[in-house]
From TrEMBL:
Domain of life: Bacteria
Species of provenance: Pollutimonas thiosulfatoxidans
Isomerase as UniProt keyword: yes
Protein name, entry field: Hydroxypyruvate isomerase
InterPro entries, alphabetized: HyI-like (IPR026040), Sugar_Epim/Isomerase (IPR050417), Xyl_isomerase-like_sf (IPR036237), Xyl_isomerase-like_TIM-brl (IPR013022)
Length: 262
């Protein structure tokens, strides 16, 4: 349950190499990148090696401006599969082993049934591709406030797709922030889908700022993960209130909680 710094949000204002250097200085062992496609993969790999960092997670390409993925959109299958291939190329160059496969939002006039069938067909093709590369694809429910219309907003909905595809290279990405923005008890929501969880992210539900591990439902969910034997990354995907380094005091409470849960 090591922490990964999401460099798409943390250390704002710095170029990526300086963000990586800062994350390493602050004790992070890994990073996440929502959009790794603006950097040359060889350069990114060199930065990771320089600072002893693992790239824990990337997203598939979002699509056109304003889109949040293409997986469920009928007629965009070739673009989605090309995006998966592009993400796998980044993984091959950097050693990343997890890709969030973005489902997107059903377009106006499309039926949810058609979009579900499109998503399932796309994932059934993509999962074997990922498996061959030693990569796991993840699905993540996005809350309706930040991502209105996204194909799934509840963890159980994303888990249902994972179960329907039924491939070991497709798993669930559980985000405390999105669950709490949906007014869910984060521990109960986690327990409902725990068997499929491969990657976790955390942030405070108010303004997506520094997490509060001492919040009782959050603390309970962290203990649930620990006691279940979860050994994956917990991505710190939040917007710092001020200086990122100065705001990392919450990690003391996090370490205490997961240590007590053993």
């Amino acid at each position: 349950m090591k922490l990964a710094a999401n460099l798409s949000l943390l250390y704002p204002g710095l170029p990526l190499p300086e963000k990586a250097a800062a994350a390493a200085r602050d004790g992070f062992a890994a990073i996440e990148l929502l959009d790794p496609y603006t950097s040359d993969s060889a350069d990114l790999h060199a930065v990771l090696l320089q600072h002893g960092l693992t790239l824990a997670l990337i997203n598939t390409p979002m699509g056109a401006p304003g889109e949040k993925g293409l997986g469920c959109i009928p007629g965009r299958e070739d673009e989605f599969r090309a995006g998966v291939s592009r993400a796998l190329d980044v993984c091959a160059a950097t050693g990343c082993r997890s890709i969030h496969a973005m489902a997107g939002a059903p377009p106006d006039g499309s039926s949810r049934k058609a979009c579900r069938e499109t998503l399932l067909a796309n994932l059934r093709q993509a999962a074997p591709m990922a498996a061959e590369a030693g990569v796991t694809l993840t699905l993540e429910a996005l809350n309706r406030h930040d991502a209105p219309g996204y194909f799934y907003h509840l963890p159980t909905e994303a888990a249902e797709i994972v179960a329907a595809v039924n491939h070991p290279a497709l798993r669930l990405q559980f985000d405390f922030y999105h669950a709490q923005r949906e007014q869910l008890n984060v521990d109960r929501a986690l327990q409902e889908v725990l068997a499929w969880v491969h990657h976790v992210q955390i942030a405070h539900p108010e303004q997506r700022q520094e997490p509060d591990p001492s919040d009782p439902p959050v603390a309970a969910a962290l203990r649930t993960l620990r006691r279940a034997g979860y050994t994956g990354w917990i991505g710190c995907e939040y917007r710092p209130k001020g200086d990122t380094t100065a705001g990392l005091g919450w990690r003391d409470a996090y370490q205490t909680i997961i240590t007590d849960a053993v």
